[in-house]
Specification:
globular, 0% strand, 36% helix, mainly alpha, 58 residues, single chain
């Protein structure tokens, strides 16, 4: 079962290798930066690409 970023139901099964992504502390902070919305890793990568940042993993 996949868990959305907004799910607070900790009874849901989370598969560590499929549902979790390791990120550095700076990226983790950026994922939670927008008020009221947690970005997905893909959304953050896209924002970094649009901003011309080379740290977006590609």
């Amino acid at each position: 079962m996949r868990v959305s970023p907004r799910t607070r139901d900790f009874a849901a099964w989370v598969h560590p290798t499929e549902d979790l992504v390791a990120v550095c502390p700076n990226c983790h902070a950026m994922l939670h930066r927008p008020k009221g919305k947690t970005l997905t890793v893909d959304e953050l990568v896209e924002k970094m690409k649009q901003a011309g940042t080379n740290s977006a993993g590609g």
